[in-house]
Design goal:
It is a single chain. This protein is of the alpha/beta class. 38% of the residues lie in helices and 12% in strands. It contains 15 helices and ten strands. About 10% of the residues have low confidence. It comes from Hymenobacter caeli. Keywords: Hydrolase. Its EC number is 3.1.21.-. InterPro entries: AAA+_ATPase (IPR003593), ATPase_dyneun-rel_AAA (IPR011704), Methyl-DNA_Rec/Restrict_Enz (IPR052934), P-loop_NTPase (IPR027417), ScoMcrA_N (IPR058807).
């Protein structure tokens, strides 16, 4: 008698889809319950300044999706889980190293190896002696009339931004992506300097790997492999500004909230305030040698920073830092100024009018969507033409819509593809 044939394996039940809203619900429940999650070994999910083990969060959200409190997340820790969470616009980072108890002596022994050269003090890398002034002709003057010709904001809005910068010494430009924050930051700096003077302007972009050692002071290896104390962007610019007190200097910080702001600034947070400038408020930097002069921010240094409101995976800005800035909100500018700019580059006036009206309506739809909001509105920078006339204005607009706006709308309404398609059809319709 032939043995019975084994039953064919039943197909595995499909995995419940993981959405961003489910993960956010899981994070809220974890915080409210104070749940002790199993720690991860390498990676962490970073959300609003807190860190969570990615797989434990994914499993919690998976149980919400399935309605089964005992359900297991079907993917292992590491790349499979991290990829699923990153696809939902969450930030996954490598864990911060934590010194295990009882290893302090090992750490001290390792640190001793940094001080090469015996008992002699650690050499401090000095600032290069090169002149900062350009070798060519003096920088071209820059006045308000030129700025207004380049910008889409009104003269009153420009004056208000300059007044905030003059009053607080620190200005924060915040708004949805594509609203010209970095473009405006440079023009504000040039107006303050009175010229397109790059020798008195420093631009730095924060990111998750940027730290105090890059911005203020830290140890770095030199060409001989020895570790030296090297000043970062801020002290070098402050040194130049202090040596030239009669003229203003500007530091532009792009994407301020992409870095860990409190860690990057450290103890210098207080020195940014307008009434804490100058030698009277100088502080000793942690890594500086005992005989090094104390550090201060000179009165003629101005800071202009930009902040993207749409990236919810980033930590909210430290309130202690935020209150030291005057804040200017930038909004999409789909009005007559953009229409005139498009017409000047060869876009027919009727087409420019239909386009700006349609984009205004689309931004209202985005603002009214409870899953999005006004911080996700489309910025006007997408539709600012490149310099010079457009050979085919309609074709240029079509490419912008298909290659830049369409993917963005698909991402906004990833759970509602019909909504994204309907809005895209309406936008493409202005070209017909």
């Amino acid at each position: 008698m032939a043995p019975p044939r084994p039953k064919p394996a039943e197909p595995a039940a499909p995995t419940a889809p993981l959405t961003r809203e489910l993960v956010l619900r899981a994070l809220r429940q974890i915080d409210r319950a104070g749940a002790a999650l199993p720690p991860s070994t390498v990676y962490e999910l970073v959300y609003r300044g807190r860190r969570y083990p990615p797989r434990a969060v994914a499993e919690w959200a998976h149980r919400l999706a399935t309605g089964d409190a005992a359900a297991r997340w079907p993917h292992p820790a590491g790349t499979p889980t991290n990829t699923a969470l990153e696809a939902l616009d969450f930030t996954i980072s490598t864990k911060r190293p934590v010194l295990a108890p009882g290893h302090a002596a090992d750490a001290a022994e390792s640190a001793d190896g940094l001080y090469l050269g015996g008992p002699e003090p650690m050499p401090v890398a000095a600032e290069p002696k090169a002149k900062y002034a350009p070798a060519g002709p003096p920088p071209a003057p820059y006045a308000k009339a030129e700025a207004l010709a380049e910008l889409l904001i009104s003269e009153e809005e420009l004056d208000a931004a300059l007044a905030g910068l003059a009053r607080r010494r620190n200005l924060l430009l915040q708004g949805p992506p594509g609203t010209g924050k970095t473009f405006l930051a440079r023009r504000l700096a040039w107006l303050l300097l009175g010229a397109r003077d790059e020798s008195r302007l420093e631009l730095v972009q924060f990111h998750p790997s940027y730290g105090y050692e890059d911005f203020v002071l830290g140890f770095r290896p030199d060409a001989q492999g020895q570790f030296r104390l090297v000043p970062g962007v801020l002290p070098l610019l402050c040194q130049r500004a202090a040596a030239d007190p009669a003229r203003p200097y500007v530091l532009v910080i792009d994407e301020l909230n992409r870095g860990q702001v409190a860690r990057i600034f450290g103890e210098l947070l207080g020195l940014l305030e307008a009434d804490k400038r100058g030698p009277a408020h100088a502080l000793r930097l942690p890594y500086a040698p005992p005989d090094a002069p104390r550090f201060f921010v000179p009165d003629n240094l101005f800071v202009v920073a930009t902040l993207n409101l749409a990236d919810r995976s980033l930590s909210p800005l430290d309130y202690a830092l935020r209150r030291r800035f005057a804040v200017v909100e930038l909004r999409p500018q789909f009005g007559p100024r953009l229409g005139a700019l498009l017409a000047a580059h060869g876009v027919p006036t009727a087409l420019a009018g239909r386009l700006t009206a349609r984009l205004t309506a689309l931004n209202q739809t985005i603002s009214d969507d409870p899953g999005l909001g006004p911080e996700f509105a489309l910025g006007h920078s997408y539709f600012v033409p490149p310099p010079g006339p457009l050979p085919n204005a309609a074709e240029w607009l079509r490419l912008v819509i298909d290659q830049e706006i369409a993917p963005l709308l698909a991402d906004y309404w990833r759970d509602e593809p019909a909504t994204a398609a309907a809005q895209l059809r309406k936008l493409r319709g202005v070209l017909e």
